[in-house]
Amino acid sequence: MFFYFKRIDIHGVENVPKDKPVILLGNHQNALLDAFLIATKCGRLSYFLTRASVFKKPLVSKLLKSLQMLPVYRIRDGWSNLSNNNSIFETCVDVLSKKEAVVIFPEGNHNLARRVRLLSKGFTRIVFDTLDNYPDLDLQLVPVGLNFVNATNFPDSTAIYFGEPISAKPFVSENRNESVLSLKETIKEALEKLTTNIPEDNYDVTLKTLDSLHIDYLNPKDVNTCIQSNFEKCSKVVKPSNKFMKSFFKNLLILNIFVPYLIWKFIVKPKIKEPEFIATFRFAMALTLVPIYLIFIVIIGAITISLSASFIYLIIVILISLLAVKL
Hints:
alpha/beta, Glycerol-3-phosphate (1)-acyltransferase, 13% strand
């Protein structure tokens, strides 16, 4: 993550309880990278509810489950599969009863749109089922706002905002439907303050205006204030003055990893149907294929030239990578 993102800003991580059961509820723009960011930055070893479609291949399924990812089925996965969610929800209840952490993306799917979408009620079932079985459990809900400068670009920057914990107990009432609606609205309002929330009406026009103003999308409070003030109160990002150096080191990096780059550019990327997955697949290649390629180059260099020269080359490439990403 350090090598992939130019910046990773963390805000409010102290709001995540360390010794209580907690459900972290995040907005969902950037596919698996959203989960990776919360996993590495929330300070809790967490279980993740993940859409079932990514578990289709046995090897992938085994890998994801080893990372404490649990498959959740949706209507598009077939009505017959929805009953499989019962055991997953029971697992979540059991995990929470042991004061563990569960991460859920309550929008139910991912989308690059810079707004909080309608929340599904699946997460509320887990909340209320847990409290039905363990009424004295001090279950905490923490909204998480994930913000990106440009989720499909590399390198990108991100800011994660962990909101104030919300106690789940006060939402329990005799009328389950009212409780569900109240909880969904509370979490949605909290998420809208932690990430950019452009109203659906005139979305494209508003987004274009914000882009032209060079708004800092890593500061959702300022962005939302800008929108609400009809673009009168807007904080702009200072443009970097090192474009030439950044471009130079980025091209130099591509030159040194040209084989993985060509595979990404002409084989993998064209096959990605959902743009939300571009960053995820790019990150996966950076995590696997690039190191394998560099190790291969080092071995060849050690055999044909010398081991010390190969390690020096490797260190230089790592430094080039840092400069290409961080500048």
